[in-house]
Amino acid sequence: MELSILSCMACLIVTPIIIHLLASRKKPNLPPGPRSLPIIGNLLDIGDKPHKYLADLAKIYGPIASLKLGQVNAIVLSSPETIRQVLETHDHVLSTRAIPDGARVLDHDKLGTLWVAPVSPIWKNVRKLFKSQLFSPKSLEANESIRRAKIEDLLSSVRQSAVKGEVVDVGAAAFTAVLNMMSCSIWSMDLADTNSEMVKQFKSRFGGVMEAFGKTNVSDFFPVVKKFDIQGVRRRNSVRLREMFDLIDEMIDGRLKMQESLDFTPKFDALHHLLNLDEEKNGEFLLDRNQIRHLILDLFVAGTDTSATIIQWAMAYLLQNPKVMSKAKEELNQIIGRGNAIIEESQIEKLPYLQAIIKETLRLQSSLLLPRKSQSQVTISGYTIPKGTQIIVNLWALGRDSNIWEQPNCFMPERFFGDLNTKGRDFGFIPFGSGRRICPGKPLGVRVVHLIVGSLVHWFDWKLEDGVTPENLNMDDKFKLTLEMAQPLRAIPLF
Question: Does the reported pTM lie above 0.85?
Fold first, then answer.
C-alpha cells in the first residue's frame, strides 16, 4: 500500500518535470507561416492556384515563409535576397530536386537528366554535352534552316486561316510549331505529315506523357503511402513512358541501320550527336541506350510546353495592348522589311522591343521554379531550414513585387530598356532559373519564342473574335506543368 502511494507521488512529481523539459527543448528557428491543420497541413488553403496563394503568403509573413504540405515541410521564397541564398550561396546543398513520385518510374528519377535527376557525374557530363554540342552556338546555327522551314509551315497554315477568315487557336498553333521544331532538331522527323502512322503514334504518346507528368499525386504530400500508389499514378506513368520509349527505340534502331549504309548522309541532329560520341577522340563520355531514351524524352517535355505557353501569353498581351503590338510591328518592318520576309535568327539581337516584349511576358507569367530539397540543415536569412525541407521559389510573386518593379501588374516592355541583367545573376528576374540548375535549353528556347512571336506579328494583323475586346479578353491562368491560359487564345489573322 505504501509502495503504491510512493509510486503515485513520484509520478505526480516526475511527470510535470518531463513535460516541462520536453516543452522547453529548443525548437528549430523556422520561418514564420500560417497555422496548419493536423495531418493535411496547409493543403486545403493552396487551392488550384498555388502561385497566387503563396504570393499572398509573402505579403503576410514576408519573403521567406514556411508551411506544411501534408507531411512535407516546405519553405517559400519570394525576394531576390532569399532566392540568391538558395540558388547561389547554398547551391551546393540545395540543388537536389524534390522528385515527384510519378517520375519514379523506369528509373526516370535517376536518368531523366534535365529536371529530376540528382547532381551526379552523369548529370554534370550531360550538362556539358548540352553546352558544347546540342545547344552550342555552332550547333544552333547548323540547324537554323530546320527552324526556318517550320516557321514557314506555321505561317502558311495561319495564312490559310486568314484567307478563309477563320479563327486561329494561337496556343495550339504555337504548340504544333514548337513540337515540330523540336522533333526535327532532335531526330529529323517532320510532324507535319499527318498521314504518317509514326507521327500519329508520337503525338498520341507524347500527349499521354505530358498529361501524366501534370497530375497531382497524393503520394507527393504523404510519403508514407507512396508504396501503395493509391491513385495508380506510377502504374499509369510506367505504361505511358514505356510506350514512348518503344517509339524512341524504333527511331534509334532506324538511325543505326541507316548509318550502316554506304550512301548514308549524316543528319546533324541531337540523335546523331548522342549516338556518335567519341570518348577516345574528344574526351567525351558515352551514353548507353537507356540514358539516350530518357534524355530524348526530357528534351521534348522541357522544350515544347514551356515555349508554346509563353508564345500564347505574349500574343495575348499584344492583343490586349494594341499600341504595343503596333510598336512591335513598326520595329519589325524597319529591321526585317515590309512584306513577306522571314526573320533571320541573326536579326533577333537587332529587335530590342521584341526582346523586351518576351522578357515582360516571362516576368508576368513565370510561376514556380521546380522545387528543390535540402540535403542538409542550412540557414537562410537567419532561419533554420531542416534537412529534407522542400524549397519553393515563387517567380510569379517575384515578377509582381512592387519593390522591384514599377507598376508591376502593367504590361510595359519598355521597363527592360535599362541595364537590367537578365542572365540569372540579378535574382529579381530569373525565368530560366540560375546556378547549376539553370535551364540548359535556354539558348534554343529563346530563339524559338522570338522567331514565332516576331513572325506572327510581322506577317499578320490580328483581331479578337466577335464580342471580345482588349478590355474583356480573358487573361486568367491555369496552373499545370506551366502557367497556361485558362481559356485558349482565339484570334483572327488578317493578311
Answer: yes
